[in-house]
Amino acid sequence: MSFPIKKNKKEFRLSLKKSLSFKLCLFLGVGIGACVGLFCLYFLYYESESLREAVKKELVELSGIVLRNSVRSMQANHPEGIEDIIKTAGEQKNVLSVRIYSRDGTVKYSSDAGSLGLSLGKDATSCRVCHTSQSTEIPAQARDRIFMVKDGRIGALAIVAPIFGEPSCYEAPCHRHPPEHRVLGVLEIHRSLEDVHGEVAKGLRHALAFGLVLFTAASSLGFFFLIRFVHRPVRYLVDSAVRMGKGDYGLQIPVRGQDELGQLTKIFNEMSRQIEDRQKKLLQSREEFRTLFHEVPVHIMVLDQELRIKKLNRSYMDAFGDNTGKLCRETPLGGEELCKDCPTLRSFADGQVHGSERMSRLPDGKEHSFLVHSAPIRGEGGRIQAVMEIFVEITQIKELQKELVLLGETVAGISHTIKNILGGLEGGLYVVDAALGKNNQELLAKGWNMVKGNVNRISALVRDILFLSRERTPALEEIDPGEICREVMELLCCPAREAGVCMELEAPGVCKTIRVDPRGLHTVLTDLLSNAIEACRDWCGSSPSRVLLRYQCQGDGTAVFEVQDNGPGIEPEILELLFKKSVSTKGSKGSGLGLLVTKKIVEEHGGSIHVESTPGRGACFKVVIPAPKD
């Protein structure tokens, strides 16, 4: 439990070091403390000097009084008066000693009886004042000297005043000093500075107390000002900026005052409002882009410069799964190798939009066509960070284009067939007209048969065209598939015999009934068997021509019909066009619509039709009709 506490203390210290308010308070406190300290020092210095000057003045006055009285006593030849004056001066408060030295440095008079007769040399403290070059601290004309001495442990201030020889001294009959002695002696007074030190100490205590009170008052006032007018507004700004950085936009701070912080608060509020507005617009644009990116019915991938997928839209992931992080060539739309003339690399190179058409084999095993566009995605400074590839599938458009081409070719083929039929009708009518003119019954019958045959051909063609052009729902009935197969075999047995083709029916012993449109199934089997007979008509193979019709019923109700022949087979280029356009190998006798009609009937039943053929080895058409759903 101690570690979190230490951690909190450490974080608290770090926060204090980073706090502007703490720094301001610290500097303010140091500044106020320095100012108060300087004031106290100046006050103490001024007080101390004032006291010292007062003591010096006191010594000067005391020395003047003692000198005047001593001179008068000396002139009156009254030594006892001098002693009384010395004693009286020595008894003054804070006076330590009063002495009068003779010319030779002997103590003649002293308030301290123990120092009488004491002789001092020039190196003594009192003598060095006059016998050295030290400057005086009183006006020069006074010729007094004031200096600091130490009397034991007590600091003292001493004054040395010379006693000059005057005419009244050496002219008096009792005086023993010759005129050439200008200085007769020296007066020395020592005054204790203990009272001064006490006053200074008292002043120091008062100054410290006053300084402490002043520091506390000034600091409190300064701290209150900082907290009230600096710390709180700045704290509001910092907290609001932190909240804004976490996404809480639109914050408004109360404006307290018109100073710089108030103006800064107004600017912050305006900036917050603008950021909120721009954030709303950005979120709206981002949502619109996200919706467009995911809901657009095309496949979109975002690639980096390594052609690695960074992002996919919903359409792509629904179709191919989440391939984020993979290289584009590792995806179904990319292929195993880099595409030739890759639009993404071109967009990275020149920053332009590029497009191309691409074929890809998708997991369903089929070839799909895509129109690919690449667009650069730029970051800060206009630098290309990624490229967006957009895949628009145009497989159906391509197939529609092919179907339109095939439709045009089919229309052209049908037109050619109609033209041939009309030519046959014209030929028949010409024969009929010629027979009527010659009254030739045999020729008339021949021409009339030509007209009837071409009328039947054009009727069948019209029926096929009408059948292909309209949607219909099969009329389902419960029938026996074997009965339909036998009917078709009986219907085509004569044409098969004429063509030299052997027809066979292969059926299971027992087959349950199926639900189909009997007319539609009859048309499908008739067309397939007719095509097989016609294919084998003029074929000279190694074995007799043979057409087999096989059918079976599976357990789930699915009916399977197969028409197989051993004729010439179907060429590969024709095999690709079967069931797509009108294709006929019968020349002018066929319209090419039979297989298209067959396919339409089978697909109306929900079934499928397939063909397998090898040139020279025949062909096999397989029709699968599932059981109808209830």
The CATH architecture designation of the largest domain is 2-Layer Sandwich
Count, helices? 15
Q: First CA to last CA: what distance? A: 76 Å
CATH topology of the largest domain: Beta-Lactamase
Shape summary: rod-shaped
Number of domains: 4
Secondary structure elements and pairings:
Layout: H1 2-18, H2 20-75, H3 79-90, E1 95-102, E2 107-110, H4 125-131, E3 145-151, E4 154-164, H5 167-170, E5 183-192, H6 194-245, H7 260-295, E6 299-303, E7 309-312, H8 314-320, H9 343-350, E8 354-361, E9 367-378, E10 384-393, H10 395-438, H11 441-469, E11 477-479, H12 481-499, E12 502-506, E13 514-516, H13 518-537, E14 546-553, E15 559-565, H14 572-575, H15 594-604, E16 608-613, E17 619-625
Parallel strand pairs: 12-14
Antiparallel strand pairs: 1-2, 1-5, 3-4, 4-5, 6-7, 6-10, 8-9, 9-10, 11-13, 14-15, 15-17, 16-17
Helix pairs in contact: 2-3, 2-6, 6-7, 10-11, 12-13, 13-15
